[in-house]
Amino acid sequence: MSLVDFSADRCTLTSPTALPLAAGFLWNPHMMIHMTARGYTTAQFMQPEPSKYARAQIMEAKHFMLPEQGTYAHHPGRFFYVKDRETGSLFSAPYEPVRAPVDCFAFEVTPADIRWTIDRPGLRIELTLTLPVDDACELWEVRLTNTGKRDRQVSFYPAFPLGLMSWMNQSATHDPALGGIVADCVTPYQKIEDYFKNKTLKDKVILLSEQAPLAFETRQARFEGEGGLHKPDAIMAVQMSDGVALYENPIAAMQFDHNLAKDESVTHRFLFGPAFDEAEISRLKSLYLSEVGFAKAREAYAAYIAAGTKAIDMDTPDPHLDAFVNSWLPRQVYYHGDTNRLSTDPQTRNFLQDAIGSVYVKPETARKTLLKALSQQHANGSMPDGIRMYEGAELKYINTVPHTDHSVWLALLMEAYLDETDDYAVLDELVSDTETGEARTVRDRISAANQWLMQAVDQRGLNFIDQGDWNDPMNMVGWKGKGVSGWLSLATAHSLRLWSQILERDGRDGSAFASAAKAFNEAMNTHLWDGDWYGRGITDDDVKFGVKADIEGRIYLNPQSFALMSGAADAGKQQRMVDAIADQMETPYGVEMIAPAYTHMREDVGRLTQKFPGVAENGSVYNHAAIFYIYSLYQVNEPEKAFELLRKMLTGPNDEDYLRRGQLPVFVPNYYRGAHRQHPEASGRSSHLFNTGTASWLYRSVIEGLFGLKGCREGLRIRPQLPATWPSAQVTRHFRGATFEVEITRGRPGLTVDGQTMAGDTITDIVAGKTYHVQVGV
Ligand code: CEZ
């Protein structure tokens, strides 16, 4: 049996130990859960701020999801212990914390649930985790089957540690009337105003069971006893002692005893999650906790996941990539657009770029995002650091640090949105902003954002960087007010150029933006072209960086990518940049974002240089940056290099690659370890973070770059850029309500539609509901 089996419908991992952090994730509009194959979990729900319901055993700092997050024995998890009452032998499913050997192990991630099938001698245990659509809770179904030759007496124990809920007040007990374990706490606080705010928080955590347990334990320390999590005293005893937790870390553990005849099965259903009060607990119980309730929830959740539609279905010589693009990639894109990464103040650039993905899977979400973002535009035309998702949402963490790039993403989103939908009417929509109350059209607002970028420049005509741009931790290049960003200047040029083209297509005059774009490109060519590539910027002290003279941080990827997009680089420069990148930045796992990675702090660059070499912005294969480059290569017709790098974003299909990267191909992570030339032993390792701007740009690169199926005012333009190794490919493209069955063949001349040879490369007068049969050559 292979280590990983992968298709559009499921991904199966057959070892609990080979990829210890391998995981799948599920979400709904209220929560998300990241579940590892071994049973450890990171989950959060919104109330409306992100909150936890199963915590560490000590107080956790508030932070966003950590890259390469390790797990430890007491890590939050969902554990199901099974004890043979005759022999005393013990194991836990899926694998933690007992870590007993298994005969057969299958961890299956599907788009709408996560499952395990585990075989032990004479016993099979099947677990399924799914979520409802409308509530923040986990639905667990567990089936135990006697697969042996004799009758078995087994005790079965779900045990979900809840961790330190609160240092002020925490407790737990089993409540037979409510049907399970109910833990309670008071969210700790110190300010009076928080008392009033916290009144609406869900301070209870419940583990409800469809069947009444024989016994229970809610005291984590007593549950473990001297045996510890690996061999808990409460489980080794004949019967749990119905322990009530009175100000101590709680665990939700229950005991069920079964006598299973040969081939007999027993099924349990559990509901786990946060709750506000007893009324809510009763509601959740009656809604979900039954065979019918689970079935209905499962059906509704599958429909919710399916509502993120697809723009393409592909059938190519690369079935592994087909499976990813036909199912898992649009799923990840949909997740981003639908939840804003479960944040109530998404970074403006993330908010707008995630909407680029929504353009293809749910265009109405992209439109809403645009209007929402513009309603928070500053009076001076610039876009804020962070979009408040509800009134009163606080701008936190990174959004309190001034970054200067947020205004460039509007035109980039607009290009994708208008090309896909042709909804030019949106430009005339009136949007009032909260700062001035003034109603202005979308068109005026995007012009104002671009005009703001045009004036936020130094004497050279390059954009100020302040405390960062796309690169969050590049916080000390310009904090004294003088430093400029080469990347941002190119991104501005690109934005201005796109915006001028949009205005022209809308019958307006875009020339002022077009000439401003040229000026930015020229300023870059004058001040930051370094002979073989573009420098990254100029510091407060007038020092150019990201240039040949640097030993570390010598070359940055983003300026090169955006120089290809903005038109700054002529053909000669393009070639030199592409060669320099190949030479200094490419690795077996993709292209790095900076090379060489910094090994010590540069006080005129900032916090990014303090990150470990090869991690995140400091020289990893940062996929968001890598996909900018790939996208730009398609823009300048470099299909071979583009595809070579695009293909490296996906883990597998061979075991060696899975073992190296440690991740299943069910999502693209925000980075793989880089600094390949400095730390080859760690390079390729996945961050396991599935929040990333990569997803939307990757989907766009496949649709519009690789297959060249891009919308325009006239209709659908067809310019495929298949890699040379593909003799042909078939794609179904869903576009403006019509379906295009496209057959791409190497060496075939011209374009035919429904048997008719077409002049040019664009299908016009598209009729919604119609299926077009298209044949095209490369
Ligand atoms: O977050 C991302 C941001 O969400 O980093 C990107 C940036 O473009 C995205 O908007 C590149 O800087 O602060 C930090 O040092 C972190 O690096 C975060 O900013 C980073 C995390 O990786 C989030 O997953």
From TrEMBL:
Q: Which Gene3D superfamilies match?
A: 1.50.10.10, Glycoside hydrolase, family 65, N-terminal domain (2.70.98.40), Maltose phosphorylase, domain 3 (2.60.420.10)
The UniProt entry, under InterPro entries, shows: 6-hairpin_glycosidase_sf, 6hp_glycosidase-like_sf, Gal_mutarotase_sf_dom, GH65_N, GH94_catalytic, GH94_Enzymes, Glyco_hydrolase_94_b-supersand
* Residues covered by the Glycosyl hydrolase 94 catalytic domain: 312-708
SUPFAM superfamilies recorded: Galactose mutarotase-like (SSF74650), Six-hairpin glycosidases (SSF48208)
Kindly list the GO molecular function terms attached to this UniProt entry. carbohydrate binding; glycosyltransferase activity
List keywords of the entry alphabetically: Glycosyltransferase, Transferase
Pfam families noted in UniProt = GH94_b-supersand (PF06165), Glyco_hydro_94 (PF17167)
Specify the Glycosyl hydrolase 94 supersandwich domain's residue ranges.
75-285
PANTHER family in alphabetical order: CELLOBIONIC ACID PHOSPHORYLASE, CELLOBIONIC ACID PHOSPHORYLASE-RELATED
Q: Please give the name of this protein.
A: Cellobionic acid phosphorylase
Q: Which organism is it from?
A: Asticcacaulis taihuensis
